[in-house]
Amino acid sequence: MKTTVKNKNSFTTILTIDVPWDSLKSNYEQEFNRIKANTKSPFPGSRKGKFYGKPAMDWFNNTVVPSIEAEFAQNSINQYYQQGLEEKKIIPINQGKVINVKFKSGENLKFDIEFEVKPEFKLPNYEKKFKITATKYIQSDQDLNDTLKDLQNRFSTMKEVKKGAEADHFLFVDLQEIENGVPVIGKKIEKQHIRLGFGAFKGPALESLIGIKANEKRQVSIEIENKKMNYEVFVHKVEYQEIPKLDDNFAKTVDPSVKDFKELENNINKNIAKNFENEHFKSINSSIIDYFINKTKIEPPDSMIQNYLDHMIENNKAQQPNLTAEQEKQMRADELNNAIFNIKWYLIKEKIINNQKININKEDLDNRKNELIKQDPANEKNIEKFLKIPENQQRFFDDMLSEKLFIHLREFSIVKVDEKKSDELRKEQGVSHG
Question: How much is the pTM?
Fold first, then answer.
């Protein structure tokens, strides 16, 4: 068998295989005789395997033999394709597509098959050091204040109001859309919480509802996406949020292990600092990825891109079962660049891991599991149960492998730190205070 390889591009390969007749003859004749013995011509008085006279013989040679040859060639292709792959030590990443087949009895079987492989590419010489920029946010007093406010909200209690609603109070309501004073059928929203003075219930809408009590109705106009809507509001309950004081009792409610409020503040500040440090490492890792993407000439295979998009669509369909074909098409277009970026990084990452022989062994996995249990001993059984699920084990393994990879790459990075106050982060996230 003669096998030749032609690269159409960096990831598409055409394998041409030429199998000599001598290698095929025995199997072909066996198949030929089997089919012939079970074939009967359409002429009167014919029997299976017997073709008397020129018409019957012509019919067999012109109709049955080409069919035998085509079927034999098709059945043989996979066998010799696999042999060709083994001979050339090629691993396809998608199903091969036969683009040309030639075979007749007494002649060689020749075929071309096209498939994709992971592209060959050269990594940048990163071990000679490379420069990147990474953001680092500097902690401010506002971070502590925000966290304490969040904790106050989480540990607050709701108290019923009898006198009538005021700004900042919470209403538990039914909202019936009305038009010209008449309820619109099918436009009723039941048992919703609204907060007076927030969202759509500010300004005139707030004024309309000031003083309302449980079991009362009022009409209100609100603006939603620049459109004025009229509703009849029925109030089930009026409540206010009782915020706990920031004192030692509050501290022990939040964390029974602390002695006083000062210790709670210290612990919060440590956690904030740790979170910012983790975000800084994420920024470094992100800049490392950008460096390799920008410095590596690589074409991601079409099949890998499509598989990525297919997987993304399937995940979206699980959340949106009524996804239309047009929406799916738009999602594919919107996510194409993201798919290309992620496939490139996947291939680059895989090559570095293989080149550097980075691996995670059982001891690494056990140590990490024990760390998690030590951090949260009350959940030991849940952690053990979680890590017995194969999908979770794989995710755990992949995360640790990536962690080791970035530890290796950070050794060669020269990081210019772009320090920013955490207030800038809040502005970027659209968070305001005061």
Answer: 0.77
